[in-house]
Amino acid sequence: MPINAHPEFIIAEGEYYQAKTPEEKIEKLKKMISLAPGHKGGENLRAQLKLRLKKLQEQQIKKKKKKGSQKGIKKSDMQAIIVGKTNSGKSSLLKILTNANPTISSVQFQTKEPQIGMMNYATTQIQTIDSPDYDRGITNTADTIILIATNLEDIEKISAELKTTDKKKIIVFNKIDLLDSEQKRKLEATLNSKKYNYVLISTKTEDGIEILKGKIFQSFDKIRVYTKEPEKKEPDRNKPVILLPNSSVKDVAEKILHGFSNRVKQTKIWGPSAKFSGQKVGLNHKLKDNDIVEFKTK
């Protein structure tokens, strides 16, 4: 405490040390600076308080920038988002479906930031996100919504909240390991009567997971096109080019590298859209799922 400090300054100092959040500390520091003694002996005190304030403000700026960067998610060619109530099994499902390793807890609101994983299926990688608190930004950009729940009431409530989106939805009823055969039969009858696109699963026993993976993959209206180098017999099956239906050879070239189609002098194709293996086609040729394309450049 400085010599000849005003009682109001002493009170403000006490409030500062009792403050729990950075925002509160910044507020109390500003108050202390305004109440600091005006005599020459108080100059050092004001300088120290201003330096402390500057450091706190810089920490807050860094924290906000970091938080903003965590929320920014670059969308992949196929993106699915998992939504559901707390303890419905969202984190467990993400862990089973993908390479992600989220924290799994029964504590409410354990997931504070979107958790991202990649689901490998049918030579594709599907970006799968566990989003806390219905992040509407991600929900609106995702291609498919996976609604996970453990009771019919939650399914109806969340479905009502998602009525404004036209995204494809898959209802995932979790914890079927707790149901007997008659309960499962009645549950399926109810879900069928509501015309839901659904899967019954258990994140504990992993029943129904493979069926769910198939449904997720089928929900995307995309085609896979594989590229082959001229000197090789087989294409790289691990890295298909993901495109919309009715995409052309030119679309494949441009997806590989913008402007690449201008360098193409010859294209051969194999697969469903080819009349015969190794057919030579132009850039406007329409492709089908599982086609193979070979480019020769100028």
Describe the structure.
- With about 300 residues, this protein is an alpha/beta fold.
- It folds into 3 domains: about 5-70, Methane Monooxygenase Hydroxylase, Chain G, domain 1 (Up-down Bundle); about 80-220, P-loop containing nucleotide triphosphate hydrolases (Rossmann fold, 3-Layer(aba) Sandwich), CATH 3.40.50; about 225-295, Ubiquitin-like (UB roll).
- The protein has helices spanning about 5-20, 20-35, 45-70, 90-95, 135-140, 150-160, 180-195, 210-220, 250-255; strands at about 80-85, 115-120, 125-130, 145-150, 170-175, 200, 225-230, 240-245, 265-270, 280, 290-295.
- The protein has a 6-stranded mixed beta sheet with strand order 2-3-1-4-5-6, with helices on both faces. Strands 8-7-11-9-10 form a 5-stranded mixed beta sheet, with helices on one face.
- The protein is flat, with a radius of gyration of 29 Å.
CATH class of the largest domain: Alpha Beta
Estimate the global geometry from the Cα principal axes: flat
Mean pLDDT: 87
N-to-C series of helices and strands: HHHEHEEHEHEHEHEEHEEE
Biggest sheet strand line-up: 2-3-1-4-5-6
What distance separates the N and C termini?
80 Å
CATH superfamily label of the largest domain: P-loop containing nucleotide triphosphate hydrolases
Rounded to the nearest angstrom, the radius of gyration is 29 Å
- Enumerate how many helices there are, as a single number: 9
Structural class: alpha/beta
CATH architecture of the largest domain: 3-Layer(aba) Sandwich
Largest sheet: 6 strands, mixed
The third-level CATH topology of the largest domain is Rossmann fold
Strand content: 15-25%
Helix content: 25-40%
Number of self-contained structural domains: 3
Query: How many beta strands in the DSSP annotation?
Result: 11
- Poorly predicted regions are none
